[in-house]
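Pilot study result, target chain (49 residues):
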Amino acid sequence: MIHKNVKTDFCSQEYLPTVDPTAFIHPLAAAIGHVNIGKKVMVAPFASV
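Predicted structure:
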């Protein structure tokens, strides 16, 4: 799952994660908000970034 972060009082902007094409995010993992997933990175099942 790749999602934008939610707007809050302390962060009024929404950010979408940046994911390198060589990276793999498992369907049961989550990447949310202002994060960068680099080259050849694997985000394992049930992990949240």
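One observation from the pilot: The chain has a mean pLDDT of 92. A full batch analysis is planned for the follow-on phase.
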